[in-house]
Amino acid sequence: MKFFIDTANLDEIKEAYALGILDGVTTNPSLMAKEGIKGQDNIIAHYKAICDIVEDNVSAEVIATDFEGMIKEGENLASISPKIVVKIPMIKDGIKAIKYLSGKGIRTNCTLIFSAGQALLAAKAGATYVSPFIGRLDDINQDGTELIAQIVHIFDNYQLQTQVLAASIRHTMHLITCAEIGSHVATCPLKVITGLLNHPLTDSGLSKFLEDYKKSQS
Ligand code: E4P
Hints:
It is built from eleven helices and eight strands. The chain is of the alpha/beta class. The radius of gyration is 19 Å and the shape is globular. The chain binds erythose-4-phosphate (E4P).
């Protein structure tokens, strides 16, 4: 499973990249706003800075919601770097834009997926990734990981090339369940990635090893 980090914070991206396990980055307009990135020039510069840190797969989201606007913005974002994946919302013109951009060889990530039907449409249009938001489904009493399983199953049935990118991941168990299901990618906050490191038996075991080593040396 590929690990993406879901943030526009450069320090967090650097920290995850330094672990040597990072495969990409997802951003969205809310995450960019959280970092105080305002104005088109600064937004482009910020995407460039992210592309300078990681090797591939930097999702950059369009703001336009009409076909012409999305393809113009998408082509502009894609011209920043070959690492860019253009993030397009799951709306009717978004499907048309995904079809157009994928025909031009531009990778796309269809965002705001909340049903298997939406995922299937985006895959048929040629999306590189579909992003089902599992945490936001959990928030409304629907098991988000069940949707991941359903989409993985459908894509497997037809050997669709589109990859399932589990998004809106809130905790480590979301990530582990997505891995069990066979989600191709998971994008998560840094705390979820580093949360995988933790186990109290690792900590107590290491303390004991070090303590015994010290004793053996005295
Ligand atoms: C993914 O691409 C989205 O940016 C993200 O995972 C949304 O997560 P949230 O529901 O925590 O905002």
